[in-house]
Design goal:
Distance between the termini: 21 Å
Order of helices and strands: EEEHEHEEEHEEEHHHEHEH
Amino acid sequence: MSAALPETWLFDLGNSRAKAARLERGEPVDVLALDWERPDFVAVLRDALARWPHPTRVRIASVASAERAAKARAALDSIEADRIEWLRTPRSACGLTNSYAKPERLGIDRFLAMLAARAQAPGACVVVGCGTALTLDAVAADGVHAGGVIALSPAGMLQTLRGATAIADSNPDAFAEVDGDDTAKALQAGCWASAGALVEWFVARARKTSGAQHVWLHGGWAEGLARWLAQDGFAATLLDNAVLHGLAIWAEELNT
């Protein structure tokens, strides 16, 4: 009889949500996602985890605030401390090389998303995360991170405009997500067009400098960005749960 494989749990603690999954045959399975703001966050996560086999290893990738990370710690209070590892962005892993002078300063979510993208297809690529922020990273064919930029996502732009202007005072529906007035449509168009233009510029530069062949989108607003880009015939591929998939790839290497 073969020995049971070690049970590994994976956590992607993002700015808006926490995701968890089990590692099975190199893939994240039983994925669950929780909004940080729900009042019963700790209880719901703890109850969900109680249904999983007790882990040998817990690998956590976090860009969340200390307050939110504490919620995840509370939900994991029944797991032995020496089985839990809070990962830092490495210099290199799984054929991907971090080009930052201080490697830990590259967001671990960005690093893992690049790992996931490289596992999908060979060659140079661009990885775009569209969530709380808009992140764009180029990866050369040899796996070296070839540079990146960070900006506001379309949702972030709208929030900034709402807080920094008086538009809503005279246009009550200006920031409606759907069926808004003409001002709402102008705001939506401006923010999505800004994000789309940044993506198109970054990809054009990456194709020139590193021969980028593929463009991958992930994050909570990735589908909306893909639709906007498609209006101009710009093709990009959605990569669901990119951070968890990258974490699964790295965890497999760490477990060997």
